[in-house]
Amino acid sequence: MSHKFKKIKNVRSFGEDPRVLLHKFLLIGLLCVSVLLALTTYAVYRVYNWRLLESTHAEAQAICQVLFVKEKKHILQIDDKEQARLFLPDSERDGFRKRLRKYLKPLSVDKVRIWDLSHQVINDGNDDKDARSVARSGALEEALAGRSFSRMEENAVNAALAELSRGVRKQVVSYLPIWGRNKEVLGAIEIRRNLDNFRTEMRRGMIFFTLLLGTALFVLFGCVYALVKRGAERLLQAQKDLHVLATTDSLTGVYNRREILIRAEERFSQWQGGDGPNDFDQLGILMLDVDDFKSINDVYGHPVGDQVLRELASRIQSVLRPDDAVGRFGGEEFLVILADAHPRQVQHIAERLCEAVKEKPFPVGVSEIQGSISIGGSIAHPLDKSLEEVLHRADKALYCAKDYGKNCTSWIWRPHMELSCPETA
Question: Is the Cβ–Cβ distance between 357 and 408 less than 8 Å?
């Protein structure tokens, strides 16, 4: 029964709980899906705006060509030098505007201005404030220089009303040069198209796209989450199984040697870090050994010996309190940790353990085996620097109980104390 007690480092942790990792995965996954959905929706919105400008610009070019072909004889004037210029007499403006509205009604065009090279609107008056601002802008200069383009602008006509209702209304403004027969620029055309219809259509499309993409992403994430959850549950169960294998004695179901020593170290550290040792808050250690266990193995065989150890472990657990701990220390020896107990309680529990084994034989098939145990005990003392000193005293007391005749308890309560007389159960 000689033992070398080594301090065992607590390495019971199996890493982070898979349930915590699963919760983090759920939060991060939902965040990523939401960010991806938002970025994708924004990207599609930007692409849709770009395509809207492109298509609107192409339609504006077509409108310019059709309009110039149909109204060429009304707005084009040839001077004495055979030079073409844009000009619309006042007498023809009303008729021109009526025909223009007829052409442009199906196309959602708000306004069309035709500019000559002198920055004058030939189809409308120049007293319009917006026309004066356009005449001074760089957009018209670029169009008169031969460059065509379209851009988003604020609808200045309806800006005041929009600000009072639902925000500034936007429109696509296209500036296109008007070319002469000799590829010279005769002027420019400004076409303004309201985006309300386009915006409504785009809004519906974006809502549909967002719902469709969001549903697909969340369904996909839900499937991935279900698979990860199943894996996490299996991992958690595997961790529990590994923990049981790492901490439990497979034969008796109580703690194994490593785990019971870890728990003893924890209890000893807690006891040392408390408010101070006293008679009513002690740490008791019991070393138990089955008497004549070798004879049981020799006579009845090792399977019967294993059955006796299982029954003994069950009886020990039935006697101990909920906060106490027991572990198989090696072979037929067991280590019991008694927390928050004064010496009389420790002694009383040891006596009850001996009685629980002695009073009831171990059933083996149709027969019974009468057994007994010897117990050596001690309690932690303020002079103890480590748990090993308490274990050594309990082990030494167990030697004394065995030498005395077995089926008894023996005690060494504090360092440098003589053995107390064994007490037979």
Answer: no
Reading the block at residue 21, the tokens are 């990792």
Amino acid, res. 156:
A
Torsion angle in degrees (nearest 10) through CA of 313, 318, 324, 329: -10
Pairwise CA distance, residues 337 & 259, whole Å: 12
Torsion angle, CA of 391/359/291/323, rounded to 10 degrees? Answer: -20
How many CA within 13 A on the CB side of residue 251? Answer: 21
Q: Nearest 10 degrees: CA dihedral of 26, 28, 30, 33?
A: -140
Residues 90/49, Cβ–Cβ less than 8 Å: no
User: For 312, phi and psi rounded to 5 degrees?
Assistant: -60, -45
HSE on the CB side for 220, CA within 13 Å?
A: 11
Residue type (1 letter), 202: M
Q: Nearest to residue 371, comparing CAs of 295, 318, 287?
A: 295
- Can you read off the two tokens belonging to residue 335? 């280590």
Q: What is the pTM of this model?
A: 0.56
What average pLDDT does range 177-206 have in this prediction? 83
Active-site residue, 16 included = no
Question: In angstroms, what CA-CA distances link 27 with 37, 214, 351?
Answer: 15, 16, 56
Catalytic residue among 59, 259, 311, 332: 332
Give the Cα separation of 339 and 336 in Å (integer): 10
Instruction: Return the SS3 of 325.
Output: strand
Rounded-to-integer distance, Cα 128 and Cα 118, Å: 16
| Rg value, the chain, Cα | 48
Rounded to whole angstroms, the Cα distance separating 245 from 240 reads 9
Q: What is the CB neighbour count within 10 angstroms for residue 154?
A: 13
Q: What digits encode the pLDDT tens for the residues 338-394?
A: 988 888 999 999 999 999 999 999 988 778 899 999 999 999 988 888 999 999 999
- Cα separation, 93 vs 257, whole angstroms: 107
Residue for token pair 């006697």: 319
CB contact burial 361-394 (16+ within 10 A = b; e otherwise) = ebebeeeebebebbbbbbbbbeebeebbbbbbbb
- Written as six digits, the tokens of 423 are 């007490």
Tally Cβ neighbours within 10 Å of residue 48: 16
